[in-house]
Amino acid sequence: MIENPQIDLDSTNEVREIPPFEIPKRAEPDWPPAVIAGASQTGVLGVRSLKRRGIQAICFDRDPSLPGFKSVYGRAHLCPDPYHNDDAWLDFMITLACKFGSKPVLIPSSDQYVSAIAKHSEKLKDHYTLSPGIALQGLLTDKNTQYELAERHGLPIPRTRIVLSIDEVYEFTREATFPCLIKPIHSHEWRRFPRNHPLYGKKVAIAKTDQELINDYRIVSAANPNVILQEIIQGADSAKRVYLSCYNFKGQRIAKAMFREFRCSPMGFGPATITEPVADVETDRICDLFLQKIGYVGICEFEMKWDERDGQVKLIEANPRLTGGGDAAPYAGVDLCWIHYLDLIGRSVAPVAPLGRDFRHVVLRADAEAVPTYWRAGLIGLRDILQSYRPPLAFYDLDWRDLRNSMETILVSAHTLLRGILRNLVNRGNN
Fold first, then answer.
1. Is 290:155 a contact under the CB 8 Å cutoff?
2. H or E segment at 106?
3. CA–CA dist 157, 181 (Å, integer)
């Protein structure tokens, strides 16, 4: 396992107007504290990144079951749900800021908090140091405006339609090539469904035919009739790329990294479960050009995929915040959370590029679900699994310093993997 990733400097990456500030290993005693919005494992890793540098850092969330409430890096603060009770959430945020001796930096790790911070930025900026790009980040979190911006500024996307009615769904099916997917405008919207609902908490629903898409729309429109319909980018999951970056207050890129996907969960459509560093000049160029065009500031992750039908790399999704995939970057020598923090407090940061390390980044819980699924589909065998787990390895959800959460990860992963293997054996016996 790779531990304690270190930052390295590549000063030849681009020319800066301001003399670059060499990235320190640790903070000065008087540097401001930080608040990570979100207590998922991604939020925990944001806290860990900053605490290791000597920053006082905490996180918060509305869901007390998340890892941040059990982490050795500090128990998360429980907040109201910003979606259903935004006034109470704003009061909570102001009260939380007052607990510090100085104005804290606020960094989101979840879409719902990007949206909430953007909505209340005028009031929050008196109590927190916010990214100057928070308004644009809020627009990118909304899938509607995300795809509008992509089309307007030339970022390739698959055939996409924002619909509000069943009639518009019928129109889309007449021109679309299947399979297609349907997804909410905001990723958290399907949490409105009961926990036993098949779409509860899901990011997408897949339709192999036009009738399946119509049926799926009738189901999801109960939560919100305004959804996204989209053709699926054709090709193997290994054609997916994860572009990670940070842009300073002037809109200049000060950090970048790129990863190739091995597997994802759910298969074909979900977030990556195993990635490795890759050089992809064209994907890097397209993503950077788009963010420069819109004047982006802050951290951003792009999920992209090469379409085997036309040879174009196309946008799957943009995430303007800390992400799970972004946890791979520090192991490549690019600590995005730390670099972003330095920029927010006004430090001029020299551009950082990957060190060329060879490693696999693993989201263990998700990959325990992915492996049996890929095996059942005939896409991998034992050799492929062993190859994807060849050392060195870096884990998203396994950190022996955070023992309680890590033990839970091992138990959940083992149970998930065993259940998947048994399901495969039963299916094989029935066939």
1. yes
2. strand 105-108
3. 14
In whole angstroms, what is the distance from residue 284 CA to residue 348 CA? 23
| Helix, strand or coil, per DSSP, at residue 119 | helix
CA dist., res. 370 & res. 108, Å (int): 27
Amino acid at residue number 214: I
Domain boundaries, given as residue ranges, for the chain: 27-130, 159-231, 234-420
Fold of the domain built from segment(s) 159-231:
Dna Ligase; domain 1 (3.30.1490)
Provide CB contacts within 8 A for 42, sequence distance 6+.
Answer: 109, 110, 322, 323, 324, 326, 327
> What one-letter code names the amino acid at 59?
C
Pick the CATH number of 27-130 from 3.40.50.20, 3.40.50.2020, 3.90.320.10, 3.30.40.10: 3.40.50.20
The conformation of residue 176, written as its DSSP 8-state character, comes to P
Q: How many CA atoms lie within 13 A of 267 on its CB side?
A: 14
pTM of this structure: 0.90
Q: Is residue 175 within a helix (H) or strand (E), and if so which, with residue range?
A: helix 166-175
Which tens digit of pLDDT belongs to each residue from 373-404?
A: 999 999 999 999 999 999 999 999 999 999 99
Please tell me what DSSP assigns to residue 312. Answer: -
Percentage of residues of the chain with pLDDT beyond 90: 81
- 119-153 pLDDT, tens per residue? 999 999 999 999 999 999 999 999 889 999 999 99
Mean pLDDT of 28-53: 98
Looking at the chain, how many residues does it have? 431
Q: Give the domain 234-420 fold.
A: D-amino Acid Aminotransferase; Chain A, domain 1 (3.30.470)
Give the pLDDT score at 223: 78
User: pLDDT tens for residues 212-256?
Assistant: 999 999 988 877 899 999 999 999 999 999 999 999 999 999 999
Closest to 245 measured CA to CA, from 261, 259, 233: 259
